[in-house]
Design a protein that fits this description.
This protein is an alpha+beta fold. α2 packs across α4, α2 packs across α8 and α6 packs parallel to α7. The N terminus is likely disordered.
């Protein structure tokens, strides 16, 4: 195994950090066992619309180079021989490549069979291509489920610089599922790329799978709404401007924060989803993240009896697909409503931020809140972390402790707020954004005074 710097930066799933504009190697670490699969690595180069510009942007062992060699599949020296890596030269990427996803796949098995999987990202020294430079990151715990492919990390542009995010989210459909989701034309089942490695040795690569000739996607690289239908794109652009005006009025111009949306998916929300209210909510809330969030994305969580963080964050270019998906009630987290279960997971996921930014939680509930004491304990404890909770009520029904948030004792700062809407669609954008961001600037000032933020 390649030597690592003494103290690599540890990035849990969802965390991000700035990276140097140099050459970086992404490799996997795991404990090989007889008869278990050995993961292969691949990469996707994505444009401003969140999709490949052409099939040439899918880099894997049968097509090992993309963007003129800026992204390559390579072998690097390691203990016991060589190991696969994806080498990314960030400075050589074309300006219309906004993101590079790096994924690991297995054939004839699943990631539950891979032990101690982790991802390493190391800068390659220009004078020692097999050594390590000053930058190193370690992404632990990327795997363990039934998936046959995991997106382990992504590189993405933010305000002219490159950043790295630890992802660790997967596909049961393997490489074909990943390729199809991001616009690669996979001709048929027999042509889908698969890995041929096992821990007992290398069985040899399969014959090259056909990849369609490059076909330009034609996205406008200056607008993240370019991939949307014209009417939806216009609405999103206008709403982003309304958010910008609201932020400026509140003295928050230039403020950056991670934005998280928590959606009630209990059984009583069945009609709210079916009537399209949640889909329209996504359309109106995504511009908040586009303006505030460090990378313009919106993390989405569902809760009922259980909590579930959705695999990928919502990005504006993919909004239409998200809206279509949320016109149907998601029946995979139960039918009851247990706010504490998702609140505890949110605190665990966002109480620390590798980049030091605060987190704005937009928490949607249709009421019937029952766990008042436990919710109050969680919010009181969470006041010590750089998180602000904006609760939004739908349906005007038994909000319990949410209606008494301003009087919660024992908090070092007032870290939460609540308002209810009888009819979400009847509220203007200006009124909605004013309510959503009304208490946030006061919390920011208090959090800085209490040294929760830099």
């Amino acid at each position: 195994m390649r030597s690592m710097p003494n103290q690599p930066q540890v990035l849990p799933a969802g965390a991000n950090t700035a990276v140097p504009t140099g050459v970086l190697d992404v490799t996997l670490a795991f404990t090989p066992r007889p008869g278990t699969p050995v993961p292969d690595l691949c990469a996707l180069l994505l444009g401003t619309d969140g999709r490949v510009r052409s099939d040439a942007d899918f880099v894997f062992y049968n097509q090992p180079s993309g963007a003129g060699g800026a992204v390559r599949c390579v072998d690097v020296s390691g203990e016991g021989g060589t190991r696969a890596a994806v080498r990314v030269s960030l400075g050589d990427l074309p300006p219309d490549v906004e993101r590079v996803l790096v994924a690991a796949s297995v054939d004839g098995g699943r990631f539950a069979d891979v032990t101690d999987l982790a991802t390493h990202v190391v800068r390659v020294d220009a004078h020692d291509p097999h050594g390590s430079g000053a930058f190193a990151a370690h992404c632990p715990g990327s795997g363990g489920g039934t998936e046959t492919l995991l997106v382990v990390v992504e590189f993405y542009r933010r305000q002219g610089d490159w950043k790295l995010r630890s992802v660790g989210q997967g596909y049961a459909a393997g490489l074909a599922g990943l390729a199809t989701d991001y616009g690669v034309d996979v001709a048929d089942e027999s042509a889908r790329p698969t890995s041929a490695h096992t821990a007992g040795g290398t069985a040899g690569r399969p014959a090259p799978a056909p990849v369609s000739p490059p076909a330009a996607k034609g996205a406008d690289p200056t607008r993240d709404t370019a991939a949307l239908p014209a009417d939806l794109a216009r609405r999103i652009d206008l709403r982003k401007e309304r958010v910008a005006v609201c932020l400026e009025k509140k003295g928050l111009a230039g403020t950056r924060a991670h934005v998280v949306l928590v959606l009630d998916a209990s059984g009583s929300m069945y009609d709210v989803y079916g009537q399209g209210t949640v889909a329209r909510m996504l359309e109106r809330l995504a511009p908040v993240a586009a303006r505030l969030d460090d990378d313009g994305t919106l993390d989405v969580w569902l809760y009922a009896d259980r909590a579930r963080r959705l695999r990928d964050p919502l990005r504006i270019p993919e909004l239409r697909r998200w809206m279509k998906q949320f016109r149907k009630w998601p029946d995979n987290v139960g039918v009851g409503n247990d706010e504490p279960v998702v609140m505890r997971e949110l605190v665990s996921a966002y109480r620390r931020s590798a980049d030091g930014l605060p987190t704005l939680v937009l928490f949607v509930s249709d009421g019937d809140v029952w766990a008042d004491d436990e919710m109050a304990r969680i919010l009181t404890s969470a006041a010590e972390h750089p998180m602000f909770w904006q609760f939004i009520g739908l349906g005007n029904s038994q909000y319990g402790v949410l209606e008494r948030l301003d009087t919660l004792p024992g908090r070092i700062v007032d870290n939460c707020n609540f308002f209810a809407l009888d009819d979400f669609d009847s509220v203007t954008d200006d009124d909605l954004y004013d309510r959503l961001l009304g208490e946030f600037p006061h919390w920011l000032a208090a959090a800085r005074t209490a040294r929760l933020l830099g």
